[in-house]
Amino acid sequence: MPAVPTVAALLATADDLLTRTPGDDDPLTPAGRDRGAAYALRIALETAVDAALAAEAAELGGLRSMRAKLLCLHHYAGPARARRAHALWSRLSAACKYHHDELGPTHAQVRTWRAAVGAFVTELTAPGAAVEFPQQRGDSALPAEASTR
């Protein structure tokens, strides 16, 4: 089984691709470096979401679809974080696809995504990032006077 790259290593790879200056010995074009950085950022985001869900519930490890994982993230990390993760993942996924009649992501777009993914990963891994819903604590979702009626 291949080793799973860490989020930090993937972000470092994206940084390297975004800051590398083209040279005679570099086989990558600027567009290729930008698309490669987008791939690294998408995988970093997916790895961070996987780690956050694994920390919350071991039974979520069997999920294969990133869309399903993002739905679960809505419950464990809150709706605002889940929406941000979904928006980032959707944009990065679109940027990773090659179509001969479409332009790839621009360098500025990928740099913006790099900053957003870095901030999101930091926020997601911060202590207390998980949202605790009343049902998780065992408290009633209804106020005491409403439950006695």
Structural overview:
The structure is a single chain. The protein is mainly alpha-helical. It has one domain. The protein is 65% helix and 0% strand. The chain has seven helices and no strands. The chain has helices at residues 7-19, 30-56, 66-77, 79-96, 107-125, 134-137, 144-147. 23% of the residues are buried. Mean pLDDT is 81; it is low at 133-149.
Key terms for this structure?
149 residues, elongated, mainly alpha
Please specify the SSE layout and strand pairing.
Layout: H1 7-19, H2 30-56, H3 66-77, H4 79-96, H5 107-125, H6 134-137, H7 144-147
Q: What's the overall geometry? A: elongated
**What's the total count of β strands?**
0
Question: Strand content of the residues, in percent?
Answer: under 5%
Q: Please give the alpha-carbon distance between the first and last residues.
A: 57 Å
- Fraction of helical residues: 55-70%
Structural class: mainly alpha
Low-confidence stretches: 133-149
What average pLDDT do the residues reach?
Answer: 81
Brief characterization of the structure:
With 149 residues, the protein is mainly alpha-helical.
